[in-house]
Amino acid sequence: MAQWIRNEKIEEGYDSLHHFRPTIYKEMPSERAVNKIKIEYNGKTVFLTEYLNKGLTDRVEVSSNKEQSNFNKVYGAELYVNTLLR
Length: 86
Description:
By secondary structure, the chain is an alpha+beta fold. The chain has a single domain (3-85), classed as 2-Layer Sandwich (Alpha-Beta Plaits). Helix content is 27%, strand content 47%. It has 2 helices and 6 strands, in the order βαβββββα. It is globular and about 35 Å long. The mean pLDDT is 94.
C-alpha cells in the first residue's frame, strides 16, 4: 500500500526555482517509471504525475478537483501548478 511522504529537498528546490514554497509529498513506494507528487498550498491540493521513458520525461499529468491537463515538460507543468495553487 502506497503512502505519501513529505519531501523537504523537493520543497527547497521548488522554492529556489519558483520563489514559492508549497508542501510537497512523494508517493512511496513508487511505481517503476512513474513519479507521483502531491502539492498542497492554502488548503488546495494538486497531483503531478511524471511518466518516464528510459529515464527521461515522456509526459506529465497535472490533476486537481476541477480538471486534468497534460504537458511534455515538467517545468511547464510546475508553472501550471503554481497558477492553480495561488
